[in-house]
Amino acid sequence: MAIDFDKEKQELTRRNFFSLTAWGIYGVGLLGGLALCGKFFVPNVKYGPASKFSIGLASNFPDGAVQNIQDQKVSIIRHGQNIGAISEVCQHLGCTVAASSTGYDCPCHGSKYDAMGNVTHGPAQIGLFWFGISQLPSGELQVDKGNIVPIGTYYVVKS
Ligand code: FES
């Protein structure tokens, strides 16, 4: 009686194949699970530019002036002791608006805003954001782009 070693060898190979496949699937699943667990320890926060920035002393802004802070896309307006910060980001699709004789115009799709940031011509549906302003103990003013206030909300400078 002859033993068929080749057949036995072929079965072992098939068994090894299925075993390796099972271990492979197990390993991929384990690594995927560990990756998901690892993601739990990474903060789910996007680090962007700070929402607060200093604009210096109120004396930097002459009465009646509208001063653009280009890198922040914000206009600072002053009327007496009242100082306001208006966003220069269009409420339609986010283009930067430009100051005009009547207020602000958006070069992208033609939205127009008055000097207070109210929409006077679409397609934008809402006015430009106004940001909250606070005064530091040093006297410097600080604009907080994370604090959106109603249009026309001024900060009254303490002298
Ligand atoms: S982005 Fe300003 S009108 Fe479209």
What secondary-structure arrangement, pairings included, does this model have?
Layout: H1 5-40, E1 52-56, E2 66-69, E3 74-79, E4 82-87, E5 98-99, E6 103-105, E7 112-114, E8 119-121, E9 130-135, E10 141-149, E11 155-156
Antiparallel strand pairs: 1-10, 2-3, 3-4, 4-9, 4-11, 5-6, 6-7, 7-8, 9-10
The chain binds FE2/S2 (inorganic) cluster.
List keywords for this structure.
159 residues; alpha+beta; Rieske Iron-sulfur Protein; seven-stranded antiparallel sheet; 1 helix; 23% helix; 31% strand; binds FE2/S2 (inorganic) cluster
Describe the structure.
- This protein has 159 residues and is of the alpha+beta class.
- It has 2 domains: 1-47; 52-156, Rieske [2Fe-2S] iron-sulphur domain (Rieske Iron-sulfur Protein, 3-layer Sandwich).
- The protein is built from 1 helix and 11 strands.
- The protein has one helix at 5-40; strands at residues 52-56, 66-69, 74-79, 82-87, 98-99, 103-105, 112-114, 119-121, 130-135, 141-149, 155-156.
- The strands form 2 sheets. Strands 1, 2, 3, 4, 9, 10 and 11 form a 7-stranded antiparallel β-sheet that branches.
- FE2/S2 (inorganic) cluster is lined by residues 90, 92-95, 106, 108-111, 123-124.
What would you say about this model in short?
The chain has 159 residues and is of the alpha+beta class. The protein has 1 helix and 11 strands, in the order H-E-E-E-E-E-E-E-E-E-E-E. The longest helix is centred in the N-terminal third of the chain and has 36 residues, at 5-40.
